[in-house]
Amino acid sequence: MLRHAKAAAGLTAAGLILGLTGTLAGATAATAAPAQQGTSRTVTIQAVNNLGLNTSEAKSVQCYVRDSGYDPGTIDGQLGSNSWRAWQNLLNAEGFNAGTADGILGPNTISGLQRFLVSFGLDTGGIDGIAGPKTRAAWASFANVRGSWC
Asked: Is 0.85 surpassed by the pTM of this model?
């Protein structure tokens, strides 16, 4: 019974060979298809850094920067390069010196953000360009200062 089921399904050794190569009598050697040329492209990693904010808090600071006249992109609670570029533009325009508006959250942006947060009366632990626990806590306090900026 099992042999009959295998034969019907073409699972015998001869069936597999015939199924893969055609007929045995007229089989010829096959040549491999030429290898395809790979295309290369530059991929930019878009890092998200909410500096400890949850999604709701990140949406709040995106709304704040949007309502201040800078485009953070989609209000999605993910602080990526568009959000950080908008914050850099706002911080620079307000005199907090966030450096180049490149969308990268580096020490200059963090220092500008710390100066901004201090101007709101929040304790960042100093202006050092490091997003330590006090800077993160001040950032979260700012996000929640009115419940939400949205």
From this structure: no
Give domain status of residue 8, yes or no: no
| The two structure tokens encoding residue 48 | 């998200």
Cα separation of 33 and 84, whole Å? Answer: 48
Number of domains in the chain: 1
Q: What range defines the domain where residue 138 resides?
A: 55-143
Kind plus residue range of the DSSP H or E element containing 13: helix 13-21
- 58 — phi, psi (to 5°)? -65, -40
Residue 118 to residue 127: CA distance in whole angstroms: 9
pLDDT of residue 90 exceeding 80, the answer is yes
The span from the CA of 52 to the CA of 55, in Å, is 10
